[in-house]
Amino acid sequence: MTATPDFGPIDLSDFTLGAMLRTGIALRRAVRGCATLESAAGTVVRYLHNRCVDPHSGSRTCVLARFYTTLPFEALDPPLKRHVAASTGSEPSPELRCLTLLGSAGDEPVWNSRHQSRAHRAIPLRSAESVRAAPMIARLIEGLGVDLEAVVTGQGAQSYTEARTYDVFHVEQALGSPEIPAQEDFVVPYSVRSVVGFGGSLRSGELFAVVLFSRVPIPEASAKRFRAIALDIRSALFTLGEASIWE
Questions:
Q1: How far is Cα 102 from Cα 86, in angstroms, rounded to an integer?
Q2: Domains in the chain: boundaries
Q3: Does the CA dihedral 28-165-147-211 come out positive or negative?
Q4: Which helix (H) or strand (E) segment is 149 a member of?
Q5: 12-238 — its CATH code?
Q6: pLDDT, tens digit, for every residue of 186-208?
Q7: Distance (Å, whole) CA 194 – CA 209
Q8: Is residue 111 helix, strand or coil?
Q9: I need a surface site. Which of 25, 66, 75, 204 has the fewest CB within 10 A?
């Protein structure tokens, strides 16, 4: 794997056009040489978690960065299959779509491994109704401009066209928002101010999403620029082709 480039800090509260362009270049270069989708996902979230800092104090502003993708149950690794089967109470269908955590980087040590996530390692998307019962997941998917029914049936990527600008999931005020769960356990103690999610389609046709939880406010103008970062990440991941998913 190539060395991670350093294009300077990322100011989430003022994500300028120049910063957007530099971040896109850096992420494409960072992913170059990754042999698996999991490795690439980890590279993306580590880069964003490490580079999002306050330009004045130099302190880290990204509390947690996570990379998700949709995968059919049959494509999950054995531990994830057991996790999903336990959560559904039965042997799932091979085609069951699961929102799967592929990369995680955060302020707490346990947030730096997908294996240590308790509730979000692989979330079964059994129906549009069940997804709507999880407000953040539903808003994330809809925020990206994808129909929930299409995601559940595995047709999510067809909701995109090449000419379309990818959308973003943005919660400018996380405190008290019904779209951001774990208010008392996460938002309040870690001073999460804003959340932004962005993503698109992989070469396989599955969807991916990167979610950043920020301790500084992310205004709408900054959030919108992550549409371009989604395209940069998609372009970088596209070169992986049919590479293995798991490390």
A1: 20
A2: 12-238
A3: positive
A4: helix 148-152
A5: 3.30.450.40
A6: 999 999 999 999 998 888 888 99
A7: 16
A8: helix
A9: 25
